[in-house]
Amino acid sequence: MGNFQNLSVWQRAKTLAVRIYQITNKYPALARDLSMVDQLRRAAVSAPSNIAEGDELRSNKQSIHYFYIAKGSIAELKTQLIIVQALELAPKTVTEPEIQECYEIGAMLYALIQARQRSPRQV
Asked: What is the pLDDT of residues 11-28, one digit of tens each?
């Protein structure tokens, strides 16, 4: 616990957040929908932020709570990207890889949660 920058799930979530910012700046139809841009960015930034916060806490029980919040943010982001696709605010070739990344980060978070639940390290 305590060095969140070494967690591969944090690294991938942070990279995804950066890509979401880039995507929301690049496509005019999406950039004009300020409420969608705000929602996408908030969900994207929430995931690595909650992973970091959870990893810095003193007990696995506390950490797991924040990892679940991060998992929820990833699900929220995935949903928003699916809506962006349906509204054709950005090309599917752009949104589809990000949706897939959400699935993978969600699976990584689930594995991290499971590992922390099995760990005897509780304070």
From this structure: 999 999 999 999 999 999
pTM for this prediction: 0.92
Q: What Cα–Cα distance (Å) separates residue 79 from each residue in 24, 35, 43, 70?
A: 15, 15, 10, 14
Cβ proximity of 41 and 21 under 8 Å? yes
Domain of residue 94 covers 4-118
Which CATH number covers residue 32?
Answer: 1.20.1440.60
Contacts of 41 (CB under 8 A, 6+ apart): 17, 20, 21, 24
The tally of domains found in the chain comes to 1
Q: How far apart are CA 89 and CA 64, in angstroms?
A: 35
CA distance 34 to 31: 6
Q: Is the pLDDT of residue 123 over 70?
A: no
Residue 123 lies in a domain: no
The fraction of the chain above a pLDDT of 90, given in percent, is: 89
